[in-house]
Amino acid sequence: MTVTPPPPPGHEPPEDPYRGDPGAPQSGRGPTPQPGGYGDPPTPPGGYGQPPGGYGQPPGGGYGPPPGGYGQPAQGGWGGYGSGGTPPGGVPPGQPPGGGRSGDPLWSDDVGGWWQRGMEVFHRSWRTIAVLMLIGVFIPSVILGSTNSLSGVDLYGASMDEYDTEMIGRSLPSLIAALIVGYLTALAWTAALRAAVKESVGESVSVGESLAYGLRRGLRLWGWGILAYLTVVIGLVLCVLPGLWALFALSLIAPAATFEAGSPYVRSIKLTHRNFGGALGRLVLAWLVIVLFGCVVGLIGGAVSAAAAVALSGAAEVIVLILVQAVMSLVLIIPSVWLVGMILCTYVWARGRTEPVSAASLSMEADR
After folding, report:
1. CB pairs under 8 A, 24+ apart, for 12-20?
2. d(Cα 263, Cα 253) in Å, to the nearest integer?
C-alpha cells in the first residue's frame, strides 16, 4: 500500500466547493448522474431532436384566427383601398371626379345609360307626373286657348299699326291668362321633378303633397322662367342662332331652380357649357323627339281645325277649335312627362361630372 505524503506547508489543495453534497461531482471524476437527473441527453440522429417538453402541438390543431379584428383583408384590398375600395373623400375607381355612381337610378356617364335612366323615370313616375301636368299644364292651356279664341285677337298675326287701344284692351285677358299659365306650368314642373326624385329612391309621394311643394317653390321658377323665355324670344327675333343657343343654355333652369340655391339662370348656363359636347348631344336628342312628336300632333290638329273653319262658322267653329286645342294639349302631356325624366337625368349627369350628386342627395336638397 502506497502512502501519500502530506503536502508541504503552504501548499494545501483548495477546498472542494462541493464537499458535503452527495450529488456533486467528485474531484478528478466526471459528474455522477442521479436518478431522475438531467444529465447530458444523447444526441439524436440528424442533430434535431424533439422540442423541449411543454411545447407540443397547439390546441385544436392550430392557433385559430388572431384576436380583435385582424382577419382577412376586405374585398379588393386592405381596408377597402384595393381595386374595389373607395378611399375616404374619394370616388369609386373608373368614375368621374364628380362622384357619380353607376348604380344610381338617375346618373349614368354614357348616352345609352342616360337614355335608359330617363325611360326608367318615365315608367316609374308617369302616373304622378301626368296628373301634375294635367293640372298644371293641360287645363290652363285649354283655358288660355279658349280665351284667345273667344277674344278673337291674333297677337302674332297683327301688324304694329293694328295695335290700337281697343285691341290692347281685348288682348289684356290673354296676356294675364298667359302669365297664370306660366306660373302653373312652373308649379307643375317643380312638383314633377321632386316627385320623380322621391320615387327614384323608393319614397311614395301624393299628388296633393307635390302640388303643395310646387306652390311653395314654383314661384321661383316662374320668375326665372320669364327671363329665360324673353331671352330665347329676343335671340330668335334678332337672329336665329342666339335664340337656339339660349334654348340650349337655359334647358336645365327648372331642375336648377328646384334643387339648388342661387341663380338657376346662371347655373344652367354653367352646367351646359362646362360639359358642352355631352350636354348638347343629350339635349338635342331630347328636344328632337319632342319636336317630332309635336309636329305630328300639330299637323293632325291643324288639319282638323282647317276643315272645321271651312265647314263651320260662328259659335260652332269656336267650339270645334276649343275641342281640338283640348285634345292636342291632352296628347302633348305624354312627351311632357317623358321630357321631365330626360331633363332631370341630364341635370344629374352634368352636375355629377364635377361634384358629388345622387338621387338620395337630390331628395334631401328638395326638402330644404
Report:
1. none
2. 9
Question: How far is residue 89 from each of residues 96, 155, 308, 351, measured CA to CA in Å?
Answer: 13, 56, 65, 18
CB under 8 Å, gap of 24 or more: what pairs does 275-283 form?
A: 275/349, 275/350, 275/353, 278/111, 278/349, 278/350, 278/353, 279/248, 279/252, 279/346, 279/350, 280/248, 281/111, 282/111, 282/114, 282/342, 282/346, 282/349, 283/248, 283/251, 283/346
| Helix segments in 103-164, DSSP class H | 111-133, 139-151
* pLDDT tens-digit readout, 222-277: 999 999 999 999 999 988 999 999 999 999 999 999 999 999 999 999 999 999 99
* pLDDT tens track for 117-156: 999 999 999 999 999 999 988 888 777 766 665 555 444 4
CA 127 to chain CA centroid, Å, is 22
Residue 56: its H or E element: none
Do residues 194 and 366 lie in contact, with contact meaning Cβ atoms separated by under 8 Å?
yes
* Whole-structure pTM value: 0.68
Report the length, in residues, of the chain.
Answer: 368
